Amino acid sequence: MTFILTDCDGVLLNWKDSFDSWMMREQGLYAKGDVTVYDQSIRYDIDKDYMNVLIRAFNSSANVGFLPPLYDSVKYVKKLHEEHGYQLIIISSLSNNPFAQELRTRNLRSIFGESAFSEFVYLDTGEDKDEVLQRYAEFYPGAVWVEDKTQNALLGRKLGLDSVLMKHIYHKNEDTDELPIMSSWKELYNRITGE
Questions:
Q1: What is the pTM of this model?
Q2: Per the structure, how many domains does the chain have?
Q3: Which domain holds residue 35?
Q4: At 180, is the secondary structure helix, strand, or coil?
């Protein structure tokens, strides 16, 4: 059995648009800063500590159980799993809230199927993935690691994983030269399977 390690938000699920909708609806706030960057405090032009509180509130809420899929992820995750036997391992800095974790798991299984994921590793909101990636790099050396955060993709590469970056607008201001960037899951599928 072959495994793919993958982040969730910005890779499999559309976190950003769902968060923006929640911010407008629940907080009355709009992204009025530089919307081309990863850092939400800059996107919203508000204090970093306050933004961390808001992200934690969103990630611990029932909203995480209803995030839509990103791009063409459903079609190609299912193809990787059903036609090529890949199992995905989720590594997500979501929340320590067990109810939010369960909602995310249910959401992923509802969208991608019951059997595509072999493990769900949930870290606290914004928590570094260093230790978890180190452990999985030892278990599955050379495994594909799919991320949208450049720092985490570079870390995976340093640890010996086959890191790829899911393309977003915020990468245009970052140094991503060392990483393969995928514009879609179809591109990633072709890279993995050689088709």
A1: 0.94
A2: 2
A3: 16-65
A4: coil
